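In response to the reviewer comment on reproducibility (Comment 2.3), we provide here a single inverse folding case reported in full, input and output, so that an independent group could reproduce the run without further information from us. The structure tokens appear first.
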């Protein structure tokens, strides 16, 4: 008698790491593993990311790139990040506006998505609207990805709103507008933003500070930042920039981001563009934030944007976990091959 197929769940962090470790890998591991365990019980098994994994028979794998099993195993339901940027997809670089900024390459592992059963892509509001409009900037990459898997869908990044709101409202407003700028290599590039801040007369470590990385599980550090900074800025080219900034938004910061993935929730003054023609608007927006709004004005804009994100349901975990569980359930009964070629 054949045993029931196993549902292998594999992410870089174990399910019990969250919320002690406030990292996206830990959050997704907890929520995906929990939802599948609730639905399918003992058939669900967590496999450490670095451990050898060889699914067989009618087994199902739930993971994301670059899990090595995906090169050969195709009975999978995958969660991926993408903003469908054609330049990044084709050239592993942000190449617009005269820039040639390297980003993570997907050339070696991107084809592992081919013949997979289901691909659920997490993206940002700007990219999702571009996809809906058939914008040439995203259409080629979107259509390519959609053709790789049997089932394909695009979703906003889900987030644990309660956990990341733990510091919101806990501290009085700082006495001045200060900005924390993420800058740490190509994926967190803000070099041009930093140069502009200096050029308009703002002083580093007085008006703004620069950080390559902030561990959000450090409650003492996050509390310090909440008491001293009103704005967090990230002009990175990375498709994971949006989820990182939404975590800060829910924690009580105003967000300033790259216009490829952030539209300021309708307020362009809180967006950065690499377009040379937009540099006067970049400067005017920064001057407005620092010199015209004042702490109360920035806080009001932060609260407007935060309320909009809290009111949404498409970025709640059930909005992603429902389709994911349905795909797994269908795949368990499907004749979709485990291996091809």
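Designed residues, in position order:
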């Amino acid at each position: 008698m054949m045993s029931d197929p196993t549902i292998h769940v594999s992410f870089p962090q174990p399910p019990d790491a969250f919320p002690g470790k406030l990292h996206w890998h830990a959050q997704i591991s907890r929520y995906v593993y929990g939802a599948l365990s609730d639905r399918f019980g003992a058939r669900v098994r967590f496999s450490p990311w670095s451990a050898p994994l060889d699914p067989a028979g009618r087994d199902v794998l739930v993971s994301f790139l670059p899990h090595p099993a995906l090169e050969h195993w195709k009975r999978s339901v995958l969660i991926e990040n993408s903003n469908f940027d054609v330049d990044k997809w084709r050239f592993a670089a942000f190449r617009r506006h005269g820039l040639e900024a390297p980003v993570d390459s997907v050339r070696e592992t991107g084809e592992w998505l081919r013949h997979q059963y289901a691909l659920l892509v997490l993206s940002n509001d700007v990219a999702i609207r571009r996809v809906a409009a058939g914008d040439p900037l995203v259409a080629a990459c979107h259509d390519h990805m959609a053709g790789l898997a049997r089932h394909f869908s695009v979703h906003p990044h889900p987030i644990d709103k309660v956990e990341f709101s733990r510091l919101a409202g806990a501290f009085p407003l700082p006495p001045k507008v200060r900005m924390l700028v993420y800058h740490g290599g190509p994926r967190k590039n803000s070099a041009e933003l930093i140069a502009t801040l200096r050029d308009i007369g703002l002083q580093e470590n007085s008006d703004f500070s620069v950080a390559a990385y902030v561990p959000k599980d450090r409650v003492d550090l996050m509390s310090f930042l909440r008491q001293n900074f009103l704005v967090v800025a990230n002009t990175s080219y990375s498709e994971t920039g949006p989820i990182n900034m939404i975590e800060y938004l829910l924690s009580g910061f105003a967000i300033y981001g790259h216009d490829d993935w952030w539209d300021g929730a309708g307020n362009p003054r809180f967006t950065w563009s690499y377009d040379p023609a937009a540099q006067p608007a970049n400067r005017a927006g920064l001057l407005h934030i620092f010199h015209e709004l004042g702490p109360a004005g920035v806080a009001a804009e932060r609260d407007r944007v935060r309320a909009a994100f809290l009111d949404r349901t498409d970025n709640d975990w059930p909005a992603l976990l429902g389709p994911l569980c349905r795909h797994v359930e269908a795949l368990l009964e499907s004749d979709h091959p485990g291996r091809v070629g």
